[in-house]
Amino acid sequence: MVDFEGIVTVFSKRLTLLAYSVTRDWYTAEDVVQEAFIKAYKKIDTIEDSGKIGSWLAAITTRTAIDFLRAEKRRKWIPADLSYMDYLESFTETGMNPEEEVEITFLKEDLYKSLNHLSKEYQEVLVLRVQYGLKEVEIAKVLHLKSTTVKTRLHRARKQLKLAITEKYSA
Description:
By secondary structure, this protein is an all-alpha fold. 80% of the residues lie in helices and 0% in strands.
């Protein structure tokens, strides 16, 4: 019988550092390690060589961290305009290496930060359009606005996001 509590004590710090190297966020890394330990606990009986537990746990942690980043990427999808959306989607179709995945993750984070700097009226229409997939007419009904007002706000919000991202990445 394997002392799983001892394994957690010995490897948790090392695995947290490994998860952080992938996720670049301490809280996320801790969540990843906890999930990795749960996966390992369920499969602990399958390990044959107890000397390889560390590398086995490292592999589980790395895969869990990458899976977590991929899931985050799907949840945080807000393109600034069609050119960025086409650029980002091209990688999911062709496949990405880890460096490209991290680059895309940072780009999306920048988009969210830029979104938070928009006025409330621009944030509302953009989130309803992108996150919830509502059409301009539907957004107009929800916000009690004219369809042309929604169209104008969407255009201006995208323009401001594009400008913010372009300034950041051209500097």
